[in-house]
Amino acid sequence: MTYPFRGIVGDVRGRVSCYKQDWIDGIKPGIRILAPTMYIFFASALPVIAFGAQLSRDTDGRLSTVETLASTAICGIIHSIVGGQPLMIVGVAEPTIIMYTYLYDFAKDRQDLGPRLFLAWAGWVCIWTALLLFLMAIFNACDIISRFTRIAGETFGMLISILFIQEAIKGLVSEFYIPKSEDPNLVKYQFQWLYTNGLLAVIFSFGLLYTALRSRNARSWLYGAGWLRSFIADYGVPMMVVVWTALSFWVPNKAPSGVPRRLYSPLLWDYESLYHWTVIKDMGEVPLVYIMAAFVPGVMIAALYFFDHSVASQLAQQKEFNLKKPSAYHYDIFLLGFMTLVCGLIGLPPANGVLPQSPMHTKSLAVLEQQFIKKKMMESVNESIEQEASVSEIYKQMQKVFMDIEKSPITDVIIKELKDLEDAIMSVEDGHVTTKEKFDPEKYIDAYLPVRVNEQRVSNFLQSILLAASICAMPIIKLIPTSVLWGYFAYMAIDSLPGNQFWERVLLLFVPQRQRYKFLEKYHTSFIVTVSYRTIVIFTVFQIVYFLLCLGVTWIPIAGVLFPVLFFILIVIRQYIFPKIFLPYYLSELDAADFEEIEDGSLQPLLQ
């Protein structure tokens, strides 16, 4: 607070130094960059389409899928080019939909506003929101992010995953009912066809969910050529959306139009999709009292965006990803203020950092980098096998390949990261290796290779361009059954769980003591060995209870959008109460914090 612009200036200096490399690293993989691009494009587009349909219903068509896609595309392009953390994905999320629904419900009943000036008044709300975001960035409010540890981040990530599953269930159940504002006398809403639509929705949603999850693990399949399994693993999820959409047209001709139910949205060139671009000319007609009143929702949205955006950025660059380039929390909040201002002036709902798409993007780029490193290592291994090298010589060559890719000399940190891989390789009986059947390091590389991420801007930029292009492809998008979207929502939630230590500890609670070594082998959860089981149970039970509290708050009408307050309270609990309960070493293993050091103090934790 005492040094305005300190954070922004530091962020800009840090990112400018690697800006050119951001683009070079994105171009280097060549066509392989399309795999994470397509993966995150569908992860961005389908929820935005669903939220747009929800917004259209709640605002009587004033905003729709066209506007949510346009906002996500515009903000995505801006962020991918000049944003601080290009791994973070921005998009129109459910909190924005909820807030805009509240704004519309308020405006439509006011004679001085009404539906006609709804977007103009929302523009003033965005101006206030942008101003507050500018102030938070300028006065270094993002310093609080350093207090946001694993327990808060993973609890929030789990909350978002459950909310996606909740949305999928609600959507699937709605397939058995007549939509709001629809004519119940239509043939497609007769009981037999409504029931048929619901059953088809169950088939399509669960079909998409199952096949998408299976395709992501295609590399481990026993059947098919290696290139085919890799192709399915990289592009299987979008392919499944296309496949299940195609299958939905195999419904018998006797079924009325609208069975199965499909997406609805006005086209880009329809009047209702063109009006909002010129909303700035109506902003002068908003009475002064409502301009000032817009400050109240502006404060709520600014606080919500500050929290969501910062957490999305943090989870996209978790410690486990071993990122090399600096973060840019302060600058990204400043840029978010600019994007919110632009969206408000052209009548679009603003976009901000989203979950679980942001960490999903980073994970997909980690897979891309892992495949590259693995390929280079295996080339080195095969050459060494031909030369009948010993196991230790093979490992040294693998280590050299890793160092060459890292462009870094061997350091203690690198040696420590490669220790598990070295131990696994050296556990093989030493001697001269002459056949791959005798020695197959590929399985060890898959299990123990340190995580590396291709930190670049190209995939984010390309997926944003595809989002912009999809606005013009609305006639094609409208072919997708809504049930496929519900299945994809569930897939996103489930796919975001691996790597979440909170989820792994919840699973551990149900594992018998004799089977825990298998759990360790599968998830590589070192805390099982280093932390007492009693401490793990108490820590996890607390986190479950707090998570359920946060989930319950989201169900409260209107006040539900204030759920971030609970996470700021959790920061206080973590910093001041946990150190008095848990041993410092145990706490550092379960929830390491940059702001504290492990030292032998006079305070005696309750759990020893």
Automatic annotation (TrEMBL):
Concerning PANTHER family, the annotation shows:
ANION EXCHANGE PROTEIN, BORON TRANSPORTER 4-RELATED
Residue ranges annotated for the Bicarbonate transporter-like transmembrane domain, each copy included: 4-177, 197-372, 451-593
Which protein family is named in the record?
Belongs to the anion exchanger (TC 2.A.31.3) family.
Q: What organism does this protein naturally occur in?
A: Deinandra increscens subsp. villosa
Q: Does the keyword Transmembrane helix apply?
A: yes
Q: Name one GO biological process term.
A: monoatomic anion transport
- What Pfam families does the record point to? HCO3_cotransp
**Mind telling me which InterPro entries this protein's record contains?**
HCO3_transpt-like_TM_dom, HCO3_transpt_euk
Protein name as annotated = Bicarbonate transporter-like transmembrane domain-containing protein
- Primary location: membrane
* Cell compartment(s), UniProt: Membrane
Q: Which domain of life is it from?
A: Eukaryota
How does the record classify its membrane topology? Answer: Multi-pass membrane protein
> Which keywords belong to this entry?
Membrane, Transmembrane, Transmembrane helix
GO molecular-function terms, A-Z: solute:inorganic anion antiporter activity
- Residue ranges annotated as transmembrane are 33-53, 74-98, 118-139, 193-212, 232-251, 288-307, 328-348, 465-491, 523-549, 555-573
Which terms in the GO cellular component ontology are assigned?
plasma membrane
State the organism's lineage.
Eukaryota, Viridiplantae, Streptophyta, Embryophyta, Tracheophyta
